[in-house]
Write a structure and sequence with these properties.
Radius of gyration: 33 Å
Number of strands: 4
Helix content: 40-55%
Strand content: 15-25%
CATH topology of the largest domain: Alpha-Beta Plaits
CATH architecture of the largest domain: 2-Layer Sandwich
């Protein structure tokens, strides 16, 4: 079994830059320092920032859903309570014979309807951006991947930091 010496074993490091010009300058400095261009990879990465909850319609939809759900749930509960008592004594006569189910069913219906409808509308509103915000803004990062010997990697890290980059974990796969 053959073993490579520590100085000839290839390693890698990543340098991240927010400006393309800084990454290109670092790449030029790496080549000037004697690192072969074939060992340097320049990559561009696009990413989007996550949408913040306060920049969506979720909160407004929660309020609307709670009110609408409570009204519809109370009406459904009232209908259920009347159906369970076979619609007996409808009208003002129902007040003389008002049972616990007449109180319980509309209140429970209002609670369940309020929670259910507000959750549905809140979740659907979380994906809707407010008009005045730009959530689709894409940001770019520029990366330099350097592969080489231990000495070359140490030199590359120094140059990346000097040029304003951030050195990331080595051997990222």
């Amino acid at each position: 079994m053959s073993q490579q010496s520590a100085s000839t074993k290839l390693e890698s490091t990543w340098g991240k830059f927010s400006l393309k010009q800084a990454a290109e300058t670092a790449e030029t400095k790496l080549i000037e320092a004697g690192i072969e261009p074939a060992k340097i990879t320049f990559e561009t990465e696009d990413y989007s920032q996550p949408i913040r909850l306060e920049n969506t319609e979720a909160i407004a939809n929660l309020k609307t859903g709670a009110i609408t759900g409570a009204v519809l749930g109370a009406l459904a509960g009232l209908t259920i309570s009347l159906a369970m008592t076979d619609f007996a004594n409808l009208g003002l006569a129902a007040l003389n014979n008002f049972q616990t189910i007449h109180y319980f069913a509309p209140i429970m219906g209002a609670i369940v309807g309020s929670v259910g409808i507000s959750l549905i509308l809140g979740l659907s509103g979380a994906s809707i951006a407010k008009d005045n915000t730009d959530n689709n803004s894409s940001l770019r990062r520029y990366s330099l991947v350097v592969k080489g010997t231990n000495e070359e990697i140490t030199l590359a890290k120094e140059i990346i930091v000097r040029q304003g980059g951030i050195v990331e974990q080595a051997d990222r796969r």
